[in-house]
Amino acid sequence: MWAGSTQLTGRLPRVTVSTTAHAVQDLTAAARDLLGVSRLTNRALASWVHGLPGVDQVGCEARAASLGTRSIKTTAKAWAIDTAISMIDLTTLEGADTVGKVRSLCAKALVPDPIDPTTPRPAAICVYGDMVATAKQALGDSGIHVAAVATAFPSGRAAMPVKLADTRAAVEAGADEIDMVIDRGAFLSGDYLTVFSQIAEVKQACGDAHLKVILETGELVTYDNVRRASYLAMLAGGDFIKTSTGKVSPAATLPVTLVMLEAVRHWRELTGVQVGVKPAGGIRTSKDAIKYLVMVNEVAGDDWMSPEWFRFGASSLLNDLLLQRQKLATGAYSGADYVTID
Amino acid sequence: MPKFEYAPAPESRAVVTIEKSYGLYIDGAFSRPKDTFETINPADESVLAEVSQAGPKDVDRAVAAARRAYEGVWGRLSGSERGKYLFRIARILQERAREFAVLETLDNGKPIKETRDVDVPIAAAHFFYHAGWADKLEFAGLAPTGGTPPRPHGVVGQIIPWNFPLLMLAWKIAPALATGNTVVLKPAETTPLTALLFAEVCQQADLPPGVVNIVTGDGRTGEALVDHPGVDKIAFTGSTEVGKAIARRIAGTSKKATLELGGKAANIVFDDAPIDQAVEGIVNGIFFNQGQVCCAGSRLLVQESVHDAVLARLKRRLETLRVGDPMDKNSDLGAINSRAQLDRITSLVDAGVAEGAERWSPECTLPARGFWFPPTVLTGVSQTHRVATEEIFGPVLSVLTFRTPQEAVAKANNTSYGLSAGVWTEKGSRILWMADQLRAGVIWANTFNRFDPTSPFGGYKESGYGREGGRHGLEAYVTTAALTTGAAR
Q1: pLDDT (tens digit per residue) in A56-68
Q2: Chain B interface mutation, best of A12, A55, A56, A256, highest count of B Cβ atoms under 10 Å
Q3: What is the CATH number of domain A56-330?
């Protein structure tokens, strides 16, 4: 069995969760224990996820909208902008990605704003697996993590050995974090055991790398499904639950993130294990990012208010945050040419 | 651990001009202020302005002006012309929304978030909605087919409470004008300012003089209006006690009345409810407008099997409520409207605790000046406790439990009121069954405290009679007569 060998020197501390189980059999045993069953069958998983309280769509969206009306000004805004920058997984996931493009993005992460050296750095660079080594080399010992999407991202439609090989290759190349996709087809057809097993197997293949589980909520459609998939992902050992690949519309939304934040909060009450949340895709403005932070603050609480527990999957968001940051510092808006295009 | 502290985000007071003193608005003009009393900001007890106490002679002048306007111009105007005025008023309310929101918050103590997002927009929506009805009354099904078209009563005396000053004004004035009545309105003693600003809107809209008259004052002004022989109908929103007094005073006269009174609504949470949204609904049900809502969900009836889970989530949620300066855009709870109301809340909660209820509030620092009461949950409440039967009209939730749907219905209906109720369950058939069983004028399913001009609002039993809003609301402002001729009967 592959064992994680990368030595992490990053500024983000490794998360210690109360279950140290990474092996599939350990995760399965923990799941059996939580569900109170002697064998983890699809029926057991189905009755468990179907037993979760439902989500009322109207109420959920109304709550998300009302949190969106918080007025975040002056010092609170400055704090939120810096916090949001530090939570970004700066992302490029294109077929056209090149070594040059990835290096350029890494340079941006190292020096987000050449005008202001006090600007915080994003948490990670998020790339396809074959770009991990390039990113790793470019980031050096800066402490900025490298996250790789894996498991036949974005569709996830590949044989399991391929998904595992994809994951291992990225980890061996030095990825600190793996962003996997769940099998939405299996989920939507009610095959929860397959979803669980795949996550658990990928978790095992990750070794010490941090596992983010992408639910692709735009394909799950209902909030009930989002809640069920969130619980399945946490049960199977995901360190983070993530909304979207960014390749399907709608990507991250506030109500979906609300459901997921409620899920991680409740999961910690239930198991003592804290799981992170990453909305990804479609978050482009500082105003949006601040709405998400308000939601983290009021729904999950302070404990999630750090890059260790909350991330934004984004690319253009960083530049908007930098523009707002410059505005707060100078009192005037600069313009698109005062932040770098990378 | 890093902490996200929201910096103060105060709304500006500069958008609204408050006069030093106000007269009465009668026959299209303001009179000179006289016999004035102060109206204060309940959040800090500072004096906002002085308003006039209208005496019987003033009420007489106002009713006479309304009568002249009814017989002279308004009663003869076509429905489409009346509609034009109402559309105009609605648009002006929207244009001046910030002004109204700020003034309402200053005078009432409720958070700016609510006046901005609820009170003022819904007030405008009521004028828009009723503007649309003005020229379609014949088709509203109010009169029998072939009968005469519905006719206005004439002069309507309207008395409104302090909890939603502008919104209640809109609920009253919009249908009255749409149906062709003219109005003498008395705002509550502690919250007269938005009604006086509305008088300016009437001027701005070129509403003919006398169609809307605003007389400020305390209960004596209200009595003069109720007793005035020139008034054809009384529309009242307020306490059950005053409502009963009004009904007694007009007994034996030809005056019509609609009364929208108190409530002690049950918010019923079943074990299959969407729990997180139910918790939001509980919060919105009882802490919206500091619980000073006649249809507030002041009794939480929670199925015993989920009582602990619901209470735990509710308490956690209440820890995030922001209580404080109503002008801060991030305040969720503002000030109680008056010292008298604060005293009433305090004494009822004390009585509840004395009777054995357990009191809980989240940690919150209340401002030193002004009238403040923390969000409060009373658990272990029984049906016999005063806090389970009497309307507290404050941010106080009484928690009771039930075991079966039948028991929930029995307990929910076991009240002298019947204004509203809430049902939380994912089971559609149960919602319909409950709605059929509950004796309340408004029943919300998987939501609470939602108001819409198209939906009738009103009570059963001691919560009053008559409906406001929707097609039903029009009925209260018209008379119908079957026209008997040789041709049709």
Answers
A1: 999 999 999 999 9
A2: A56
A3: 3.20.20.70
